[in-house]
Amino acid sequence: MEIVSVGGGPAGLFFGILMKQRQPSCRVTVLERNRPRDTFGWGVVFSDETMGNIAAADPPSFKRITEAFAHWDDIDIHYQGEVLTSTGHGFSGLSRVKLLEILQERARELGVELRFETEVAAIESFRSADLVVGADGVNSRVRELHADAFRPEIDFRPNRFIWLGTTHRFGAFTFLFKENEHGLWRAHAYDFDRTHATFIVEATETTWRNAGLDKASEEESIAYCTRLFADNLRGTPLLGNKAIWRSFPIVRCGRWRHENIVLLGDACHTAHFSIGSGTKLAMEDAIALADALARHGRVPDALEAYESERRPVVESTQRAAQTSLQWFEETERYFGTLEPLQFAASLLTRSLRITHENLKLRDPRFVRRLDSWFASRAANQSGVNVPAEPVPPPMFTPYRLRDMVVSNRIVVSPMCMYSAEDGLPNDWHLVHLGSRAVGGAALIMTEMTDIAPDARITPGCAGLWSEAHAAAWKRVVDFVHASGPAKIGVQLAHAGRKGATKLLWEGMDEPLEEGAWPIIAPSPVPYLPHSQVPREMTRADMDRVRDDFVRAALYADKAGFDLIELHMAHGYLLASFLSPVTNRRRDEYGGILENRMRFPLEVFAAVRAVWPQPKPMSVRISGTDWIPGGFEAADAVALAKALKSLGCDIVDVSTGQTDPASQPRYGRLYQTPYADRVRHEARIPTMTVGGISSYADVNSILVAGRADLCVLARAHLWDPYWTRHAAFEQGYDLRWPNQYRSLEGYQPRFK
Fold first, then answer.
1. pLDDT in tens, 668-702
2. Is 3.30.428.10 the CATH classification of the domain at 393-664+690-736?
3. Where are the chain's structural domains?
4. CB 252 within 8 A of CB 318
5. pTM of the predicted structure, to 2 decimals
6. Are 349 and 323 in contact (CB under 8 A)?
7. Which fold has domain 1-36+95-151+252-351?
8. Which amino acids are annotated catalytic?
9. CB-based contacts of 451: which residues, under 8 Å, 6+ apart?
């Protein structure tokens, strides 16, 4: 077998090593445009997990790397005059030049042919090889020559960074945050051998330009950063090595293989340096490709297996890297607003890969201190005594909204049951909501409850527009209140253009074939091409809808609900006013955001005026439509600020469902960043919903200050006792209702 690797970085070299190690008879040639020791930057980082993978793949390479690297377990966070340390993280740093030397030496031992200072203008002359590997980095020539096949997408991020070195030793992976007259600066620093450390300085483009570094030479940039971090460097100068300010490029490819060509490492995908090193991904790519070739006799089969197996792992890493880099792009949001411990928790859990539970395994002392701090703040905020011993998990601390205090931070999300008759809730709703209250959640939300018969999504949707509805809901409310400490809220809504459709199991969003009612919306835009076209609302329609919301609120109070939530998300009526995708009006209710918010805010103000002042109000909003040109995160912040000024107590931040054209990026906690942004920029409490599946997720969200309450939907459908099971698994004593007292001391067996 003949293999040509274009690119002599860690990916190309390590792949050549593995192939010669496994198939000594194969011919492997590595072509590199640079000289042997040429590289930019200073050090690379490997996790203990990555080192284990390298050890299993090639023990000699592992041995030489471990003899040269610097290892640490601690992360130090320098923030507002404090140094917060978390241990148990297990990383290794290594000189980039040393790594290249080790891999070059090992490759030569095995008979890999290395050709340096070799430009590859075209790769056609190598196509006779059995396999051509594009391992030539971010600016891959191989990738660009076959861009139509690989379909690369490159997103240059807005922050600027410069990769420097220093002879100062840090002893831990160190994050530094420093503010001066130009703005906020971040530094990522770590030792990579016994004498040197990497020192990456990062800032927003605005801060970078304010400092005049857009016009600075390498020497001037180094001098500026040395002065800025002089106290941290203790007089040691910073060093340059092709040090230029750059924007981080996120590289993604639609395909990783084309005929007998395959991409590895940065040529194919990049991951931000804040979660480690792209070198990690590159070398693990090499392992995965070599494994695939060993399992499959034909190269095309091996390349297909490599991409199908490796792509999900890489994309998961890229998602983590994306959330991590966004945290650093938006650090100004947290700097000065979060207390030191919470700032550290936010930083440590930023990528979502380290959770509260995982952090407890790594550093139980740090987590105990964090949990004690959180419990103390919860006690102060709620006015409820929280015992110092044992320290409760964050999710089992109280929270106050006006006169309503919830006993923990778990909310049962509004979930349509499509089981009402003429809007009246029945035994299904009593059992559905009542069982979740017994199950331990602190706040139970009704399904989307419509304010009028023509405000329903389907004929089976619940409503609240008459004395009979209030009485039916009171039965549910009374049961929830009698079953324990849970509170119950009602989500009031109007379906708008998404109304008059079939039940979920008969065809979601499909228009009714019989019995449909006329529907209204801010603009006559149907939800689906074959949906009923809504009538554009007049001012008289707005008055009627506003009054219907007010009437429903009065009935909600009569039913005994503890909280009202207005639904301004998911493309229903009020959300349709907010989004430019659905609001095409040219009057004072359309156009700019201020106009589009006008009617939804009018409805909120009218409801707040009749809803008893001691009782809180929430609004569910969209963080984004997931549509270019639609409602965006900045709009959500502006809306939340306006709602806060009118007396809104908390916003429930969801996303999408505005229009079928939306393209959400699903994933674990995929909506939480929007709740986080609204919470910090609008300075209003938030609930977060979407992709929350574990108590570790909940605790992580809370201690990091990303939201105040966590809303779970499908998890509660699957397990009505989700909260009680979470308490059991964390060793927390969540008292059962009197009727279930026989469970005290019971130890369930799951296997």
1. 888 999 999 999 999 999 999 998 989 999 999 99
2. no
3. 1-36+95-151+252-351, 393-664+690-736
4. yes
5. 0.91
6. no
7. FAD/NAD(P)-binding domain (3.50.50)
8. 572
9. 463, 464, 465, 492, 493, 494, 545, 548, 549, 551, 552
